[in-house]
Structures are given as C-alpha cells and as structure tokens.
Amino acid sequence: MTADETRQALLDTAQELLRRGLVEGTAGNLSARLPDGNVVLTPSSLEYDVMTLDDLVITDPEGNVLEGDRAPTSEKALHLACLRAYDDIGAVIHSHAQYCTMFAITHQPIPCVIEEFDAYVGGDVPVAPYRMTGSDDLADEVAKWVGDRGAVLMANHGLLTVGQTPADAMKVASLVERTAQIIWGARALGELVPLPDDTLERFAPVYKMLREAEAKKRLGGG
After folding, report:
1. 158 bridge partner residues
2. Which tens digits make up the pLDDT trace of 8-20?
C-alpha cells in the first residue's frame, strides 16, 4: 500500500475496532509501518468515531514526530518496539477486548484448542509480565513475545496483536477475543480437551509460513 492508503487503512480499522467492541472511548491504539520506514499512529486521547486522517501522527522508528498536530498515542513505545524488532510485522493493535482482558487480569494464557487459532495466531496466547502502562519496560517486554505468534496478553492490561496490515492485526484480535469467549464458556461446561499432538505438529509451521509469505508480498518480494 502507498502511504496514503496505509493511513486510510489505519483510520478505517480504528473505527471498525470501535464498531466491533474491541475498543471503547479513547482506549487502545494502532500503528502501521509506512513504505519509507516511518510509522503512522493513532493520536492520544481522541475518540475513534470523530478521528480523521488529519488527526493521525507520523513518527520515525525512534518515536520523533515528523507529521501531525496531535500527540501520538501514549503507548507509542509499545508499537515502535514491535515494529523495530521484526521486519515481518507491518501493523500493531493494542485493544481492550473484554474477554481477553479477563484473561489478562487473571494472568491466564488463552490456550490453543482450535485448529484455526494455531494457524492464524501461532499457538497459545501468553501473558507478558506486568509492566507500567506507557513505559519502555512494557514495550521491551511485550516485543519479546510476538516474534513467533500474532498475539500476546499484557498482564492487568489488555491484548496486543500484530499483522501485515491494520486489517490483518484486527482479524487476529477478533479471532483471539472470540476464542477467549468460547474458552470462558467451555470451562463452565467442563474441562478443556486439548488438540491431539499430531494436529498441533501439523499446524505448528502454518503461522510462520503465512507470516513470512505475507511479509514478502508487503515488502514487494512476490
């Protein structure tokens, strides 16, 4: 996508997150890598339903503001740490999805008990240890967890997902939230039954292959 297309995709995804109930008010934040290597982020303290393209903020990979009249999200370090660490990530979303946050505040991983979850998320969604919101410590900690999977819970906080585009990262967030709700309900019925080992072995490489293939397309390699 061009820079303008990326900015529009970020805004569209931000407003779709609101419609899907994955964010509320001004909570949560989004970012996407631009073709020149800089990053577009949602602004701080602005509700999604009134956000426009002019409200988005562009920074360099170190967080220095290059364009925009508003302050970037207070969680910019979180986004930039993930994007700096992995060339095969093009977008990052931090959301406060209800069921995922329930798992996050009880420090419980979301187990991979559904085949599509393994393929599109990469396995269990772990819980990164608690670090203060907006801190470099949180950014450094969370970035460690998304090298081989599409999502991580932040203890006592919420969900972070990654993808090639904002829409891809949103699809992961929706899948993880839906699965968290299913698991919450399934536990009321009884004990979770894990996927067979041979199924997990078969699906284990799929996420990595898809991520590498999509990153190659995004970077113009096929």
Report:
1. 154
2. 999 999 999 999 9
| Residue 75 designated active-site | yes
Section 67-81 average pLDDT: 97
Q: What is the dihedral of CA 148, 152, 155, 157, to 10 degrees?
A: 150
Catalytic-labelled residue, pool 5, 16, 75, 177: 75
Q: What is the pTM of this model?
A: 0.95
Contact 38, 59 (CB under 8 A): yes
Distance CA 193, CA 202 (A): 18
List, for residues 151-169, the tens digit of each pLDDT value: 999 999 999 999 999 999 9
CATH class of 3-218: alpha beta
Residue 26, pLDDT score: 84
Domain boundaries, the chain: 3-218
User: By the 8 A CB rule, do 178 and 159 touch?
Assistant: no
Chain centre to alpha carbon of residue 14: 12
More confident residue, 102 or 24: 102
